[in-house]
Amino acid sequence: MKSILNDATRRIIRQFQADPTLPVAELAERCGVTPAVCWRRLEKLRADGVLKGQVAIIDWQALGYSVEVSLRFTLDKTQRNAFDEFLGAARKVPEAIEIQTFLGRVDVRLNVLARDMAHYQEIYRDRILTLPHIADIEALMHISTIKSGGALPI
What we know:
The chain is built from five helices and four strands; from the N terminus they run αααβαββαβ. With 154 residues, the protein is of the alpha+beta class. The chain folds into two domains: 2-47, Winged helix-like DNA-binding domain superfamily/Winged helix DNA-binding domain (Arc Repressor Mutant, subunit A, Orthogonal Bundle), CATH 1.10.10.10; 60-141, Lrp/AsnC effector binding domain/regulation of amino acid metabolism (RAM) domain (Alpha-Beta Plaits, 2-Layer Sandwich). A four-stranded antiparallel β-sheet has the order 2-3-1-4. β2 (96-101) and β3 form a beta hairpin. α1 (7-18) packs across α2 and α2 packs across α3. The longest helix has 13 residues, at 35-47. The two termini are 13 Å apart.
């Protein structure tokens, strides 16, 4: 991978991070390369798994989801398949928009969205507490996002 990260490719990645909706011709112009070179580099980055896709960033609050909670789980791992069974069940919780696994005291984190506190209480009672192999849960209520985005100085 290091061999494709020359100056032109770094410029393409920087500009693409800033605005992935740019047409290839405009992206190429901003990066000081031809559209053909830009297109080939983007295709190479996709083929190499560097660019995994483009996503829509949705403002969930604008759609009425005003409660965001990060749930941190420690699992009871005395059962052989506890981890896999928990993750399989957690994937079925439609309000869980993100699931992460960790090494350390916390095993899994679910990021859950709800319309309001009553909706969150329903999700928690009916979907979260029914997940298998839970030893401990810590709930962190989201207050504000200070920094978001994955752009790195390349």
